[in-house]
Write a structure and sequence with these properties.
This protein is mainly beta. It has helices at 2-6, 32-37; strands at residues 24-28, 48-52, 62-67, 73-82, 85-91.
């Protein structure tokens, strides 16, 4: 990261990212060989994990559901505000 900073690139080392909302931290082994030696699950690396924090929930009203062919669909909500975002639609995530 310091090498990229020397060329003027913005990195996590050169900025204060606390102004942006987040839902936790990602911890990762700092040695590439050790990281790779742990392998992967069917979806995720074993050398990294997420520490999530539970934020305050928001109550809103589901006003419509739009069905798609397949397993997914979208829900239309009354206007809601989550952190700094205006939310009017939600999707199903697996």
């Amino acid at each position: 990261m310091s090498y990229l900073n020397s060329f003027g690139f913005d990195t996590v080392l050169s900025n204060d990212w606390t102004a942006y909302p987040d839902d936790g931290l990602v911890c990762r082994i700092d040695n590439y060989k050790d990281f790779e030696s742990l392998g992967y699950t069917s979806k995720h690396p074993r050398g990294a994990y997420a520490l999530k924090q539970r934020n305050e929930g928001v109550i809103t009203k589901l006003v419509d559901v739009i069905w798609n062919v397949g397993k997914s669909g979208a829900g239309m909500l009354n206007y809601g505000r989550v952190d700094c975002s205006h939310v009017t639609e939600l999707g199903r995530h697996e």
